[in-house]
Amino acid sequence: MSRSLRRPARAREKSRLRGSSRLVRTILGVAAVALAIAAYLNALDNPFVYDDTDTVLLNRSLVDLSNIRFILLYSLFRPIVNVSYAVDRAIWGYTSFGFHVTNVALHAVAVGLFFGWCTRAFADAYRADPTLQPEWPAFFAAATFAVHPMLTEGAGYISGRSEVLCSIGFLGCLILARRAIRTGALLPAAGAVIAAVFALASKETAIAVPVVLLAYDAWVLSPSESGGGDAQDGWRRRLWRVYVSAFVVLAVGAVIRLRTLVSAGALIGRGPIDNLLTQAIVVWRYIGLLVLPVGQTIMHDARFVTSILDPAALLALAGLAALVAFALRMRARDPLVTVGAVWFLAALAPSSSILPLREGMAEHRVYLASSGFFLAIAALFARLLATRASTRLAASCVLIVCVFLTAQRNRVWSDATTLWAEAAEAAPATWEPHYAYADALREAGQCDRAIAEYRVVLNLRPRHREAVTNMGICLAQSGDAAGAERAFRTALDIDPSWPRGYTNLAALAITRGEHEQARDLYREAIARDAKNVLARMQLARLYESVFHEYGRAAEMCEQVLGIEPATSGAAECADRNRRRAAAGPEGK
User: Fold this and answer.
1) Do 322 and 385 reside in the same domain of the chain?
2) What is d(CA 511, CA 482) in angstroms, rounded to the nearest whole number?
3) Residue 114: partners with Cβ closer than 8 Å, 6 or more residues away
4) Last-in-domain residue among 366, 393, 413
5) What is the DSSP string of 141-207?
């Protein structure tokens, strides 16, 4: 056969293979996204828990979708997240189902983007090896990201949405920046900048994006390009023209953000060296949970290091140094292993090395970092995943186990008492999970068990005013009015400016028929807190139903409308009492 006849045949064969590869890629991408959705179907009916109260239920900016400025400025450093909550509230109201639907949908988008990134990354890294098809290692990296139980606190927890939105922007930035580097086109470069801003406006973890992109550019893209020294010079030029500028801008933003965290009391007084050593241990715990997800909980008992000679901390730090050294040695043979390791550590650094946050360890912080971890693991086994069915079968079995464990975690999150009972058992010497467990029991109507947990909290933290106050509420509901009053007065001894102490004492006074005392206590609560809606509404009720001072009742409700316009019953109260006041002393 002549060469002229063989060439079209080869071209047709290559075209057929490319078409087959695209079909496999599409099927596997859809499968990864489908797994992400399937793994969280039993989480859709889960309730609001923990920080959801502040981020959603008590979030005043969500009431009026037309007030864009308030929505954007309410959470100054995470406006994208707050906008998503506002849209959810407008569509679903305050039902947790709709918020969970959005979370799962966003998680599926993140998985799809991660699969798209991985196919490109493996194609770049193994360009010289045409026998290695990137689809299978990319699928297993993305599918593990989709269903791993360590990600339930990011994907299934409404207040964990910042992690998912940040990851979407982060991955979009990587994909677009890669295209910009390869083609030199301005449009994808602009898109990469927009995606990076989106990620940063979702969570500060996105500060890691130029680190990951630089590692990928230097160790994967440049060596895979033809041109030798020219390609190497290319990433070095970008280092000074692009990456250094990005680092400077992000450093300035980080300083500003750090100042806001300090002013808000989000950080604790732990020194940078102690915090680094503490987080060295925590990072290994994260790695352990990613490898073997046993012992998960919403609140971990982190071991805070207080000495630079702590042997466990020094061993953990040495282990991380050895891990980094191993990853760097792998960059010539398997550069994606190195990039994945850099990704994992860089994405954890803002919350797990630099900032001494109150919670030393939280599973949702691993969401974005885990994608780098899964990329590195898939790169280690890329050739086996691409060529051996037995390896793919073993990896599929791991995915099945992960789906089962994720469904189990979703069930734990379906009940606040179960969630916090698990946390209290996991961290018996930490007061926070006991307090949250006690509150969950109180809200579930189990005050006898809640009182016992509040006592545990007070043994660990004797001057916890909220624990004393809430225990008093439980005592009142249990019929122990004298014990409740002692608790409320103890809370005021701890903090005389605590408005809830006065409103709770006022409620007790009403049950005893001491209406004048209740009125004075509500007035005191308002004096302590000028925006106290509860005290005004209760005082309005007293003025209306007991003292028949309808003008004053209307005035209280009008003040409430000026503070919280959406307060239930406030408008009706103001209108009703204005009419009664106008009708004369008898309210007719």
Assistant:
1) yes
2) 12
3) 141, 142, 145, 167, 171, 371
4) 413
5) HHHHHHH-GGGHHHHTSGGGHHHHHHHHHHHHHHHHHHHHHHH--HHHHHHHHHHHHHHHTT-GGGG
Location of structure tokens 């400077």: 248
The CA distance from 523 to 513, in Å, is 17
For the record, the structure tokens of 570 come out as 């406030």
- Domain end position, chosen among 394, 413, 432: 413
Domain that holds residue 458: 416-583
Distance separating alpha carbons of residues 341 and 523, to the nearest angstrom: 59
Q: What is the pLDDT of residue 116?
A: 95
Q: Tell me the per-residue pLDDT of 333-392, one tens digit each, with 9 for 90 and over.
A: 889 999 999 999 999 987 665 666 677 889 999 999 999 999 999 999 999 998 899 999
Question: Into how many domains does the chain fold?
Answer: 2
- Quick one: 399 and 426 in the same domain? no
Same domain membership, residue 488 and residue 438:
yes
In a domain, 10, yes or no: no
User: Which of 347-361, 381-395, 434-448, 496-510 is the least confident region?
Assistant: 347-361
Cα–Cα–Cα angle for 127, 194, 187, nearest 5°?
A: 60
- On the question of pLDDT at 505 being above 50, the answer is yes
In 3D, which of 292, 310, 263 has the Cα closest to residue 77? 263
H/E segment holding residue 216: helix 209-216
Q: Same domain, yes or no, for 363 and 450?
A: no
Q: How many angstroms separate the CA atoms of 378 and 296, rounded?
A: 24
Q: How many angstroms separate the Cα of 438 from the Cα of each of 431, 469, 502?
A: 11, 12, 22
